[in-house]
Amino acid sequence: MPVATERPAESEHESRWRAQAWYGVKRADLVEGFTPLGALGWTWPTIPVGMHLLISHVDGLYARGVAARSSLDLALLSALPAGAAP
């Protein structure tokens, strides 16, 4: 028997909107954390793409070294098959 205090089920639109808002906040936090890296030559696009963040550096060897030492789940674009979208 339903309890009177239960929330009605969200519509697909409401659920999608809530997820987009949550990802937007989380991505903003992520970008804010990366901000000091801009002074070290790292860049990233301003267009949000979920929780993925494409960061790049003009020195590819330096970027590979950072990725190798990092405890983050990082992937190099060179690891993608040719012609694949990032």
Task: Describe, in plain words, how this protein is organized in 3D.
The chain has 86 residues and is mostly helical. It is 38% helix and 5% strand. It has one domain. It has helices at 12-34, 60-69, and strands at 42-43, 56-57. The chain is elongated and about 55 Å long. The model has no long low-confidence stretch (mean pLDDT 78).
Explain the layout of strands and helices.
Blueprint: H1 12-34, E1 42-43, E2 56-57, H2 60-69
Antiparallel strand pairs: 1-2
Name its key features.
mainly alpha; 2 strands; two-stranded antiparallel ribbon; 5% strand; elongated; 38% helix; 86 residues
What is this structure, in a nutshell?
The protein is mainly alpha-helical. The protein has helices at 12-34, 60-69, and strands at residues 42-43, 56-57.
- Poorly predicted runs: none
Helix content: 25-40%
How many structural domains does the protein architecture include?
1
The end-to-end span amounts to 48 Å
Number of strands: 2
Order the strands across the largest sheet as they lie in space.
1-2
Envelope shape: elongated
- What kind of sheet is the major sheet? 2 strands, antiparallel
Which structural category do the helix and sheet elements fall into?
mainly alpha
Strand content: under 5%
